[in-house]
């Protein structure tokens, strides 16, 4: 029995019969997979017959794919499992989640460069504070900040690529945002500043450029397309960027920075508790992707994002909760093995193995993990209210992996101490709440009567 072969056969059949949306029922007899279909015209019968595991096709009241005895039961089971998975995926593909996923696809490829430059920026700051290697720090500063100075161009390239435009045209339009010459442009009595609008302006500019390019492609004659389409795309989108988008995106970017600072300085403990407590559910729903442009905007404006250390506390609560499960459920060897294998990744900020392998299936530990995250977030937020904000110079890592990227008003030492205190708080509260409230106690058994 080759389970991989059966799974591959099921995966090959599904798209050839029109995909999940075309299937109304699944059954099998001794030799045939029987499918109820919405529209048989979407079925590729020739390709089905050509599959190695398919012995033939019969069109009757149901669409029947002959697989042979034994194999049909195994392939049907894999087919039904795959169908459930694809159907669930389609249900989760709401317009909001799809939009957030596409925006995330623009920024996620930039994370390695943000991490590398963030670490170098932290190292350069440390050298400057210590007065070491003064001849090297200007070079490190140039390397660490060059990417951020041109990040708008990379955002433009990725935006056009994600939304179906020509990447270099997206980059060309987005480059307007960071071009020093925009300081000579005045509209409505206001002079532009290079970089005004930041990554949000670049995203909007490249998105507009993509739509303009597609509009031109549909209407410009083929003989003139290579000349007119790029010209019209850059001209129309560039003018709109200069006279509309940079102003609008600049206002939004400034509002994000102002709101983040106000939130932490006035309601830091409460804001930290909310952000740290709700981040795990946001990850489950895919809504955390909306935060990526906000993080990037804050890093571009202030040199670090003050939100990431707060959100990282959710991972601390998760680690504490899973440690409590490990201690309490001594009899569950399989679960303890899962925790041991996933815990190192959890400490470094990769929480999915613990979430989907431990806390979420158990139910209550997921909720108590959120309580631990809220406690850690409140700890970090409290120090922000006292003037010791902690930020991260890059996005991507969390947990212990975030230490090299920390920055703050009180210096690196204070930032490390506050962040470490938040992690310890998250671990402790996540552990305690899970140990005492996160697991169902076995029912008490009545003593046996004496003989």
User: Percent of residues in helical segments?
Assistant: 55-70%
The major pleated sheet works out as: 4 strands, antiparallel
Major sheet: arrangement of strands: 1-2-4-3
- Mean pLDDT over the full residue set: 89
Count the E strands.
8
The multimeric state of the shown protein is single chain
- Domain count: 3
Report the span from N to C terminus. Answer: 55 Å
Query: What is the C-alpha radius of gyration, as a whole number of Å?
Result: 28 Å
Question: H/E series, N to C?
Answer: HEEHEEHHHHHHEEHHHHHHHEEH
Description:
The protein has 451 residues and is α+β, with helices and mostly antiparallel strands. The protein has helices spanning 3-16, 45-50, 71-92, 95-107, 111-130, 137-149, 151-162, 167-178, 198-219, 222-285, 291-302, 307-328, 333-347, 352-362, 364-385, 412-437; strands at 23-28, 32-37, 56-59, 63-66, 186-187, 190-191, 390-392, 406-408. The strands form three sheets. Strands 1-2-4-3 form a four-stranded antiparallel beta sheet. The protein has 16 helices and eight strands. It has three domains: 3-92, Gyrase A, domain 2 (2-Layer Sandwich); 98-253, no CATH class; 275-437, no CATH class. A hairpin with a 3-residue loop joins strand 1 (23-28) and strand 2 (32-37).
């Amino acid at each position: 029995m080759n389970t991989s072969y059966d799974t591959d056969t099921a995966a090959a059949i599904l798209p050839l019969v029109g995909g999940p949306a075309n299937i109304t029922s699944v059954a099998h007899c001794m030799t045939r997979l029987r499918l109820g279909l919405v529209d048989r015209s979407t079925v590729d019968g020739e390709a089905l017959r050509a599959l190695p595991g398919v012995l033939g096709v019969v069109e009757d009241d149901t669409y029947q794919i002959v697989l042979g005895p034994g194999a049909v039961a195994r392939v049907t089971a894999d087919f039904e499992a795959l169908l459930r998975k694809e159907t669930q995926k389609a249900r989760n593909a709401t317009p909001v989640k799809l939009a957030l996923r596409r925006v995330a696809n623009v920024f996620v490829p930039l994370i390695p460069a943000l991490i590398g430059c963030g670490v170098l920026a932290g190292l350069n700051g440390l050298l400057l504070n210590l007065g070491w290697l003064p001849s090297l720090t200007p070079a490190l500063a140039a390397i660490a900040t060059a990417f951020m100075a041109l990040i708008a161009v990379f955002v433009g390239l990725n935006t056009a690529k994600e939304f179906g435009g020509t990447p270099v045209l997206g980059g060309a339009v987005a480059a307007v945002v960071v071009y020093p010459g925009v300081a000579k442009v005045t509209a409505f009595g206001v002079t532009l500043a290079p970089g005004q609008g930041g990554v949000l302006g670049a995203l909007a500019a490249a998105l507009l450029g993509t739509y303009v390019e597609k509009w031109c492609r549909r209407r410009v004659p083929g003989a003139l397309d290579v000349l007119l389409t790029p010209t019209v795309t850059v001209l129309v989108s560039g003018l709109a960027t200069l006279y509309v988008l940079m102003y609008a995106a600049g206002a939004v970017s400034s509002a994000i920075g102002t709101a983040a600072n106000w939130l932490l300085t006035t309601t830091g403990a409460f804001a930290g508790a909310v952000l740290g407590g709700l981040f795990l559910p946001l990850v489950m729903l895919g809504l955390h992707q909306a935060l990526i442009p906000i993080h990037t905007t804050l890093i571009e404006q202030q040199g670090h994002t003050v939100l990431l250390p707060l959100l990282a506390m959710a991972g601390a609560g998760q680690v504490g909760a899973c440690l409590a499960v490990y201690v309490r459920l001594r009899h569950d060897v399989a679960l303890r093995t899962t925790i041991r294998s996933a815990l190192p990744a959890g400490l470094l900020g990769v929480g999915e193995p613990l979430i989907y392998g431990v806390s979420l299936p158990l139910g209550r530990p997921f909720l108590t993990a959120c309580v631990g995250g809220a406690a850690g977030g409140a700890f970090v937020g409290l120090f922000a209210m006292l003037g010791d904000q902690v930020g991260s110079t890059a996005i991507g890592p969390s947990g212990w992996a975030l230490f090299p990227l920390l920055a703050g008003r009180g210096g690196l030492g204070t930032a490390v101490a506050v962040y470490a205190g938040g992690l310890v708080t998250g671990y402790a509260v996540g552990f305690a709440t899970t140990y005492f409230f996160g697991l169902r106690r076995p029912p008490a058994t009545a003593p046996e009567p004496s003989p």
